[in-house]
Specification:
- The complex is a heterodimer of chains A (337) and B (243).
- With 337 residues, chain A is an alpha/beta fold.
- Chain A has ten helices and ten strands.
- Chain A folds into two domains: 133 residues, Nucleotidyltransferase, domain 5, CATH 3.30.420; 169 residues, ATPase, nucleotide binding domain (Nucleotidyltransferase, domain 5, 2-Layer Sandwich).
- In chain A, α5 packs parallel to α7 and α6 packs across α8.
- In chain A, 56% of the residues are buried.
- Chain B is α/β, with parallel strands linked by helices.
- The relative contact order of chain B is 0.17.
- The chains are: A alpha/beta (337), B alpha/beta (243).
- At the A-B interface, β3, α2 and α3 of A face α1, α2, α7 and β11 of B.
- β3 of chain A pairs antiparallel with β11 of chain B.
């Protein structure tokens, strides 16, 4: 062999149009990310039709930039990888459609990639993977514990039964007047406050590995509204710290128990909310104290949000496993492992 | 010149391969199926059947709307990506003009109005006339209530030909319009042909800014309309930035 494997990867599942070139699944040659956050901020959250319209404005510009920044031509490419789900259907379709056109035009294999597998593979830019492995995936749309018995073999151990963790951050953020996306600000405030409200830890003692954040969200909103009615001003740093402590406790507790039950060589922490410093600190400490034999791989903060480089990394592995899509590939908004 | 032309703006899907303005192959599906699943396989099999390679193409022509937002985006994304990646010409043609061109009258006075259902009694519509063998736009395309569009048609001594699919709601509105003379074009004119699309591109110049080429939606999103109402004059040129 000796020839380098170059994957052109597309990601458009939500509000970022991203195209990347990844070499041998572990070196990022380019990772163009055009974010629409400033647009959706106006509406307090992602509006699907607006997202689709932005993606189609960006897709070919990002494509050209990804290739020129990586300093490669179409003739150098090995394959095209694309996120085909889960996500917003209209948004996914732009990436899927563009990826198919490029694969067709240049006679390249097309590799379908699950967005969540992509998040896990953001960790591969930090360390080689060893199996069995577990991943804690936390984002605006998903909260999952995934068991990976061997390469490219994903099984969900537990997932959220209602809101995703990131969604809960955005919803309580709105109550505190923080613009979408609220995660970063709440995280910062949390570091300046203390857990004085003791919000519920949902399903913490439940035997399953599932999560639930809507009870916490309601409890938080009620607390704030009751105080408003009594004309009492609550300390927003303490509110943030209490909320974050509850989220982090539940995530850490479930992960801890899952690791007791399914010992693994590595734990990967990934997804948009994995950029949360409170969560990173807690998981790091827990792993050190309770699971010293399991290596913790935290996705780099820059690669926690949606990006195509992670899709290229996951696509590389799927390519080795002979995963291929044909020209009838469709977006699958509800795709699961 | 080898042309690939495609339209997925409404239920039908049409793809044609055209060489030197002669039809080489064409496929039209009228199935209300998922265009994302059918468009590329249709292109692939049509190209294979006539032994064309993607790198032999010189031009891509696409119907750029109005129509179903998702449908239009599938063809426009395919077309702009192919044109970019193969470094070839891209031409966008109105989806309304495409079906208006099915009415092949060359009487210059004849007004042809085509429309697509846009739900809630509204349509996307435009008016066209053949002038020296070219179809020119004489009533600008807009999103409008069907009956007010009909009532606004010129009432001079000429009848208008209407091209489009009438559903029950639109048919009801049609009955109540008496001010204007018009007649419905035969049903077969409502089916777009990608061969026709390629021919219409003959009179157009290729798109200069392919990256900036987007569907002609004819409508802002509801979220945008509401936001602009609350924030007059605050709209920015671009809301997307690279990180």
């Amino acid at each position: 062999m000796g020839e380098r494997n170059l994957i052109l990867a597309f990601e458009s599942s939500c509000d970022e149009t991203s195209i990347a070139v990844v070499e041998d699944g572990r070196t990022i040659l380019s990772n163009i990310i055009a974010t629409q956050i400033d647009s959706h901020k106006r509406f307090g959250g992602v509006v699907p039709e607006v997202a689709s319209r932005h993606h189609i404005e960006q897709v070919t510009r990002c494509l050209k930039e990804a290739l020129s920044k990586a300093n490669v031509t179409y003739a150098d490419l090995t394959a095209v990888a694309v996120t085909y789900g889960p996500g917003l259907v209209g948004a996914l379709l732009i990436g899927v459609t563009a990826a198919k056109a490029v694969a067709f035009a240049h006679h390249l294999p097309l590799i379908p990639v699950n967005h969540m597998a992509g998040h896990i593979y953001a960790g591969r830019f930090v360390s080689d993977f060893e199996f069995p492995q577990m991943a804690l995936l936390v984002s605006g749309g998903h909260t999952e514990l995934v068991y990976i018995e061997s390469e490219n073999d994903f099984k969900i151990l537990g997932e959220t039964r209602d809101d995703a963790a990131g969604e809960a951050y955005d919803k309580i953020g709105r109550v505190l007047g923080v613009t979408y996306p609220a995660g970063k600000t709440i995280d910062q405030w949390a570091h300046q406050g203390e857990d004085t409200f003791d919000f519920p830890r949902a399903m913490e003692k439940d035997a399953s590995y599932d999560f639930s954040f809507s009870g916490l969200k309601s409890s938080f909103i009620n607390t704030v509204h009751n105080a408003e009615q009594r004309k009492v001003t609550l300390n927003k740093e303490d509110l943030a710290a209490s909320f974050q402590q509850s989220v982090v406790d539940v995530l850490a507790e479930k992960t801890d128990r899952a690791l007791d039950r399914f010992p693994v060589k590595q734990l990967v922490l990934a997804g948009g909310v994995a950029a949360n410093l409170g969560l990173r600190e807690r998981i790091e400490r827990d792993m050190h104290q309770k699971h010293p034999a399991t290596k913790l791989i935290m996705a780099p903060i820059k690669l926690c949000g949606d990006n195509a480089a992670m899709i290229g990394a996951a696509g590389y592995v799927a390519y080795q496993h002979q995963k291929r899509a044909q020209m009838d590939l469709n977006a699958e908004p509800g795709l699961s492992f | 010149m080898k042309i690939l032309a495609m339209d997925t703006s409404n239920h039908p899907l049409s793809v044609a391969l055209v060489e030197d303005w002669q039809l080489v192959a064409e496929t039209t599906l009228n199935l209300a199926k998922n265009h994302s699943v059918y468009l590329m396989p249709t292109i692939e099999s049509l190209m294979k059947s006539v032994d064309w390679q993607p790198e032999q193409l010189d031009r891509v022509v696409v119907a750029h709307g109005p129509g179903s937002y998702t449908g239009v985006r599938i063809a426009v994304t395919t077309a702009k990506t192919l044109a970019t990646t193969l470094d070839i010409e891209l031409v966008g043609i109105s989806s309304l003009k495409l079906i208006a061109a099915n009415v092949t009258t060359f009487a210059p006075e004849q007004l042809i109005v085509s429309f697509f259902d846009a739900r809630r009694g509204n349509v996307f519509a435009g008016g066209y006339q053949w002038v020296s063998g070219k179809l020119v736009t004489s009533i600008p395309e807009k999103h409008v209530a069907f009956n007010s569009m009909l009532n606004a048609l010129p009432s001079e001594n000429r009848s208008t030909i209407l091209v489009g699919e009438l559903n029950d709601g639109l048919e009801e509105q049609l009955k109540n319009v008496t001010a204007t003379q018009f007649k419905m074009a035969p049903e077969n004119t409502t089916i777009p042909s990608a061969y026709q699309l390629a021919l219409l591109s003959k009179q157009e110049t290729p798109v200069k800014d392919i990256d900036g080429f987007v569907p002609n939606y004819l409508r802002m999103t509801e979220a945008e309309v509401e936001w602009q109402k609350l924030h007059p004059g605050e709209s920015k040129q671009s809301y997307v930035r690279e990180v």
